[in-house]
Amino acid sequence: MAADSNVTQNPDQAAPAPVSPTGRTEREHLFGGDPRAQAGEHLTTSQGLRLSDTDHSLKAGPRGPSLLEDHHLREKITHFDHERIPERVVHARGAAAHGTFVAYGNAASATKAKFLAEKGHKTDVFVRFSTVLGSRGSADTVRDTRGFATKFYTDEGTFDLVGNNIPVFFIQDGIKFPDIIHAGKPHPDREIPQAQSAHDTFWDFVSLHTEATHHVFWNMSDRGIPRSYRTMEGFGVHTFRLENADGETCLAKFHWKPIAGVHSLVWEEAQIAAGVDPDFHRRDMADAIEAGAYFEYELGLQLLPDSPDETFQGIDLLDPTKFVPEELAPVQRVGKLTLDRNPTNYFAETEQVAFHLGNLVPGIQVTNDPLLQARLFSYLDTQLTRLGGPNFPQLPINRPHTEVNDNLRDGMHQTAVHRGQAPYLPNSIDGGGPFTTDGYVEVPREVAGPKVRENPASFDDHFSQAALFYHSLSPVEQVHVTEAFTFELGKCYEQAIKERELQVLAKIDATLCQTVAAGLGLPAPKDEPVTHGPVSPALSQIPPGPGPITGRIIGVVAGPGADLSGIEKLREPLEAAGAVVRIIAPQGGMLGSGKSQQVVERTFLTARSIEFDAIVVASGVAETPDAGDIKARILLLEAFRHNKVIAAWGDGVKVLAGAGIAGGPGVLLADNPDKDFATSFVQAVGLHRVWERADAVMASEV
Ligand code: HDD
User: What is the per-residue pLDDT across 650-689, written as a single tens digit (0 to 9) for each?
Assistant: First the structure.
């Protein structure tokens, strides 16, 4: 044994803490000198005592038992034991980003909320995206609703818009929330499946509780598997009441419109991603923001008259299972959100952020939607357990960016050192204040009625808008819905549940019901499908023409001998359009030298098609011994099967042919990667997928 038995580290690896010549440590440079960032050089206890050893507990001799007096050991382990807080009961899996919201100034006629009404008004925001059912460590790409929660740190107090990527909800009254969530969460005996709705309890509940049908249809559509948080719409779901500076009110629905368009994964990709890269959406957002490719959305408002019955063209605005088609009430864009900064610390920010629908500002009010009313209770209540007491608004991420004088005192985890002696009103001791001023005033509304546990009769319509949604989709999107129902119900064990859900489908569309029934090997029940209003083309995600390709990932298959100057020529227009180019080669490292040198970011071993929105094979690859590598062929074939744009120039065409891809829609072949080639490629990627290929893929012709 070595003379100094305490030295267990390899001495070559034990580097001293770097100290800069100015006396400031490198760590201070790194962390910007904020004392709370723990930027100092010396390791200490929580009390500031400098430590000389944190690798060995205090023992009675090198082979002896540990001593109870080792305060450092006990402090370190005790703190570690308590590092986790309860995960959110829903929306546990999330990722977030900071940004700013800038108002266009055209919302003043509807609301006096300054952050919306004043042109150019800039507001700090924090947005947390999430799945609903999965645990904190579950995969991002599961079929589920996505949360889209925005905290606006306005000058008038914090406003939280706690929405989803689906404009309707499973239930009409918050009292049913524990029921739908218990049904959707894993089975209580085995705690499986994780983050899935494809199981008996979910379909048991939604087939019995048919007001869930509309939301279920959105989940089974491509909306349930977004390509990126960047390509996802957001909805406030409920109807809110807005009030302008003249005291006039209107009803409104909030929308987030992604600048990059609304796009989704295909189911097979989502499944592969859940295994290959469970952090798919989280990574996509963090990488893009770090690279300066910010996420952008416009805030939209559907403004509706504040009619006494709170309905619009027959749609009950208090029913959260209904939406207002954009063709009936256009979405007016009132400001732009840019997410441009990643959190510094996941726990402090993304995990500890606490949203609450009661966080309102003057000009925005709630309505009597019974789901909204229950949420007004739940969010504050849940934080008490999750964040350990009533002082969570003092956590840095939850602090308003405006003055707070709340007279709330003491409690667990109090971090403020309040001054004064009179945290009560009225008082004469602390100068009589803080004073109530021109603050938030609820719009006076008549409230009368018998005390009942009932819904309005209009809430009884559970199917017409589900049918409207389904029939507004393009044929290929309808096929995806059909396949999703067949998959999810196919995962159920109980025959009675499948049969009951087929009865629901029969009310929406006979062909849908028959196809799903055939897939399940069950007879299709007969029923008269419900009637619905005119279809809403805005509900289809298929773009009418090429859209932006910002943030899209283009894989370029290269290798030793590849046409590197061609790659460089193609890279320029792609990056100018906002896309990210990633070189894929048989081995890692660099290709070539000089101006056209390319860094290999993925190898045939590490690349998987799900990562790329389109793939190009460079000329010069066909001659390399690895051109026929099975992984490379799978990469190309998968991208082809998922209806992505595939391209090749020069002898790259041979590589495609070797993978069985000869041509057809969305396969761009050229001699050179010239300007025309680049333009056609950008346009094709702008259409997101090559849906014309879908039938051939489904018929397994490739
Ligand atoms: Fe909720 C979290 C969105 C209905 C109770 N909800 C939560 C989050 C989002 C939503 C995005 C995550 C916030 C974050 O990132 O921290 N919830 C919705 C939408 C709903 C909805 C759009 C319907 C329109 N929720 C709903 C009901 C209840 C709750 C009806 C209870 C009566 N929701 C909660 C909660 C959560 C939550 C238990 C869990 C953690 C948290 O609040 O902070 O209070």
Answer: 999 999 999 999 999 999 999 999 999 999 999 999 999 9
Q: Say if residue 361's pLDDT is above 80.
A: yes
Active-site annotation holds for 401: no
Query: For residues 578 and 551, is the Cβ–Cβ distance under 8 A?
Result: yes
- Maximum CA extent, the chain: 89
371 in ligand 1 pocket by Cβ < 6 Å?
yes
Three-state DSSP class for 233? coil
Considering the four listed CATH numbers 3.30.497.10, 1.10.10.60, 3.30.750.24, 2.40.180.10, the one that applies to the domain covering 94-394 is 2.40.180.10
pLDDT digits (tens, 9 = 90+) for 99-148: 999 999 999 999 999 999 999 999 999 999 999 999 999 999 999 999 99
Tell me whether residue 177 is annotated as binding: yes
- 297 is annotated as contributing to ligand binding: no
Cα 479 to its chain centre, rounded Å, is 25
Ligand 1: residue of 87, 89, 91, 151 to mutate (most ligand atoms within 8 A of CB) is 91
For the residues of 325-358, what is the DSSP string, one character each? -TTTS--EEEEEEEEEE--S-IIIIIIT----TT
ipTM of the complex: 0.99
Q: How is the chain split into domains, by residue range? A: 94-394, 553-699
Digit-coded pLDDT (tens) for 543-602: 999 999 999 999 999 999 999 999 999 999 999 999 999 999 999 999 999 888 999 999
Domain 553-699 superfamily per CATH: Class I glutamine amidotransferase (GATase) domain (3.40.50.880)
Q: Is 386 labelled as part of a ligand binding site? A: yes
323 lines ligand 1 (CB under 6 A): no
Q: What is the 3-state secondary structure (H, E, C) of 99-116?
A: EEEEECCCCCCCCCCHHH
Other Cβ atoms less than 10 A from the Cβ of 467: the count is 22
Annotate 9-39 with b (16+ C-beta within 10 A) or e (fewer): eeeeeeeeeeeeeeeebebbeebeeeeeeeb
Q: Which pLDDT score, from 0 to 100, does residue 12 have?
A: 45
Atom index in ligand 1 nearest the CA of residue 129 equals 15
Rounded Cα gap, residues 593 and 206, in angstroms: 60
- Name the pLDDT band for 28 (thresholds 50, 70, 90): low
Query: Does the beta carbon of 373 lie inside 6 Å of ligand 1?
Result: no
User: Which of 72, 98, 164, 215 is flagged as catalytic?
Assistant: 164
Q: Do domains 94-394 and 553-699 have the same CATH topology?
A: no
Cα distance between residue 116 and residue 315, in whole Å? 26
Q: Give pTM, 2 decimals.
A: 0.94
Q: Whose CA is nearest to atom 22 of ligand 1?
A: 163
C-alpha 163 – ligand 1 centre gap (Å): 8
- Whole-number pLDDT of residue 448: 92
Among 355, 367, 385, the mutation site with the greatest number of ligand 1 atoms within 8 A of its Cβ is 355
Cα separation values, 282 from 228, 426, 590, Å: 9, 49, 28
* Residue 174 near ligand 1, beta carbon < 6 Å: yes
> Is 91 part of the annotated catalytic residue set?
yes
DSSP state of 227: S
Contacts of 440 (CB under 8 A, 6+ apart): 157, 360, 361, 362
Compute CA distances 388 → 380, 382, 407, 411, whole Å: 12, 10, 20, 10
